Amino acid sequence: MPYINNDGIAIHYHVEGEGPALVLQHGQGDNMQAWYDAGHVAALRDRHKLILVDARGHGESDKPYLADAYHISQNVADIIAILDELSIDKAHYWGHSMGGRIGFGCAKYAGARFHSLIISSMSPYKRPKIERDVAIAQYKKGVEAILSDRRAEGDLTQEEEDRIRANDPLAQAASLTAVRDFPDQVDTLKYMTMPSLVYVGELDTFWREGLEKCVGDIPQATFILLPGLGHQEALERGDIVLPHVEKFLAGVGEA
Length: 255
What we know:
Elements: E1 3-6, E2 9-16, E3 21-25, H1 33-37, H2 40-44, E4 49-53, H3 72-85, E5 91-96, H4 98-110, E6 114-120, H5 129-141, H6 143-153, H7 158-165, H8 169-181, E7 196-201, H9 205-214, E8 221-226, H10 233-236, H11 238-252
Parallel strand pairs: 3-4, 3-5, 5-6, 6-7, 7-8
Antiparallel strand pairs: 1-2, 2-4
């Protein structure tokens, strides 16, 4: 699988399929394998050129330990470097959770490079600092502490556990420190002039309330609430999510 080098940071990516380009960006503490495990790659690669990215600090990409390496503009620059390497002028974008946060950044920092945005389970508002501090402290305790916390939240699949074990907890702590310390992303909404699909699980309370609050400020937004689904299920339940995504992509084209 190939890499690009962006300002000294190696970013791992993989290309699957043929057709209009679609960038897939995973969530915090995950990696590109999540898209395979959820069945999205198999479902979409016959109609799209899928560009799967291990975000910096995740998967097989480099894992800096300094929070300054994780500004959203740097995540966006990583994606643009990949598009440039592949000679792709414009792509569609689908990001879940942290990937959704990066999607807001794509609109602000490189909006001309994207036909459309799909934002899953993320809003432009920040979680309370104390919540981030707790998560950062948990990552600093190591992988077993993270897994224990995830098990307490509910079912943890073997695939999820494998992806968590593949990451470096100190790099995750640095990434979350950046999220905690940088401003919210409310100012990005005015840049989302491309067609945008934003969706969230009904049970994903914090991000649902944020999206419901801001969706009217996104110029071309389609908002979908997924009944009965939580945060991670909004990625993993392809039987529910994919029909909405495929309908949206079929309707926006490459204008």
